[in-house]
What we know:
- The chain has 332 residues and is α/β, with parallel strands linked by helices.
- It has helices at 15-26, 59-66, 87-106, 143-161, 184-193, 210-223, 239-250, 261-278, 286-292, 301-307, 314-327; strands spanning 6-10, 30-35, 49-53, 71-74, 111-115, 166-171, 173-175, 199-200, 204-209, 229-232, 235-238, 257-258.
- The chain contains eleven helices and twelve strands.
- Strands 3-2-1-4-5-6-10 form a seven-stranded parallel beta sheet, with helices on both faces.
- Helix 3 links the parallel strand 4 (71-74) and strand 5 (111-115).
- The longest helix is centred in the first third of the chain and has 20 residues, at 87-106.
- The radius of gyration is 19 Å and the shape is globular.
Amino acid sequence: MSAPRRALVTGATGFVGSAVARRLLAEGFAVRVLARRGSDRRNLAGLDVEVAEGDLTDAASLEAAARDCCALFHVAADYRLWVPKPEEIYRNNVEGTRAVIAAAKAAGVARVVYTSSVATLGIPKDGTPGSETTPVTVLDMIGHYKRSKYLAEEVAQGFADDGYDVVIVNPSTPIGPRDVKPTPTGRVVRDAAAGKMPAYVDTGLNIAHVDDVAEGHWLAYQKGLRGERYVLGGTDLSLRQILEEIADIVGRKPPRIRLPHAVVMPIAVISEALARLTGIQPLATVEEIKMSKKIMFFSCDKAKRELGYAPRPPRAALEDAVRWFRDNGYLN
C-alpha cells in the first residue's frame, strides 16, 4: 500500500485552519501542521496530525515542515485589528507568506492554496456585492490588518505569475465551532448569545459556515486554477439580522438600540488610548468602526460555478457557533 499524500497546514491551531486540517484528514491525507512552541493546541486535540514546531519567521523550520509534502495550505494569519506594534502584522502576514511559499517551492511541494480574505476585495459603491473582479487598490484598505492581507495576497499572486502552482481563496466571515480565541466576529456571536450586546451599528457581513469554508479550500485544491481567486462566502446579512437570528436561537430579545458611527467612534478612541497604557485589548477599535461603515457583502458565484462550492444557510452556522460557545463555557 502506498503512503498517503501529505499536506502541510499552517494556522491549524486556529479557527479556519483546524477546519481545513479536519477536511484533509477526511480525504485520507497525512496532515502535518506548523505550530509555534507554546501555542494553544486545543483545536488539534484528538486529531491524528504530525506537529512540526516552527514559525513563519524561521526559514529553517519552514523548510523542515514542507519536506515530503505534496500540498501546502497556508491558512495562518495575524488577525488582529489592534496591535501596539503594527510592524508585527506585516512581518507575520506579508513576509511570513513569502517565506512559507518559498519554502514550499524549494521543497518541491506541487500545489499551494493560499488563504487570503474578502478584506482584500473591492466593494461596489452602488451597494451590490463585491467579487473577485471588483476594482480595488491598497489605498482602499482600512487599517494594518487589511493592508497586510492585501500585500500578502500580492506576494502569493507573484509566485503564481512566475509559474508556481498557487491558488488563492478569499473567505468572507466564517462562523461555527472551535473559534477558541474567539475571532472578532466570534466575539459578536458570543456576546450576543450571552445577552451582553444591548446595541448595534449599521453594517453588513457575508456569513459562511467555517466547515463550508474548509470545503472550499479542498475544492480549490482539487479544481482551482493557478493564480485565480475564489470567494468562499455564504449569505449577506445586516448586523441587525445576525443579532435577531442569534436572539431567536437562544430565546432572548434582540437589541433594538442602533448607535450611529459618530457616537461609537469616540468610545473606540478612548478604548485604544487605555489599551496603549495597559496593554489590554480594547473593547472597540478605530479600525473596527471605520470598517463597519462599509457593507461587506460579497458574491461567491465564481466558486459555486467553477469549484462546485455549495454553502449552507447562515442559521446553521450561527446555531453551531452558539452551541459550541455554550458547551465550552464561553457564555457563562
